[in-house]
């Protein structure tokens, strides 16, 4: 048998407390790359040269829109963005764990006595409805 209802509720409280203590978060990822500028006389055109860089780019998906990106300066800004992206990954994992525990709580919690009363008595709750009948519907042409 799995954890008791009290244990599950304690775990849920722990997860809520951890969520409340989360630092700033941001979605996306940080990548580092080197690029060639394309000028034939530039040092980056040499085969052994890695290219200009490193350049750090923070990218994130936007719902219903294109992926957005922004170049990040090395140093303090890069460290801050990397920490916020890592915190988001922890945040997402906590939310997944919270949903999992809540589903277990839903399964473990007893059904209230009044919820099934109409099923046992043979009566059904009254249906609501409009007082006027709906008119004929027209088909689009």
Features:
141 residues; alpha+beta; three-stranded antiparallel sheet; 3 helices
Give the structure's gist in a few sentences.
The protein is of the alpha+beta class and 141 residues long. The protein is 38% helix and 15% strand.
Unreliable stretches covering 5 or more consecutive residues: none
Beginning-to-end CA distance, first to last residue: 60 Å
Count structural domains.
1
Return the average pLDDT rounded to an integer.
88
Describe this structure in words.
This protein is α+β, with helices and mostly antiparallel strands. The protein has one domain. The chain has three helices and three strands; from the N terminus they run H-E-E-E-H-H. Strands 1-2-3 form a three-stranded antiparallel beta sheet. Strand 2 (52-60) and strand 3 form a beta hairpin. The model has no long low-confidence stretch (mean pLDDT 88).
Which helices and strands appear, and what pairs or packs with what?
Elements: H1 5-20, E1 29-35, E2 52-60, E3 68-72, H2 76-108, H3 117-121
Antiparallel strand pairs: 1-2, 2-3
Helix pairs in contact: 1-2
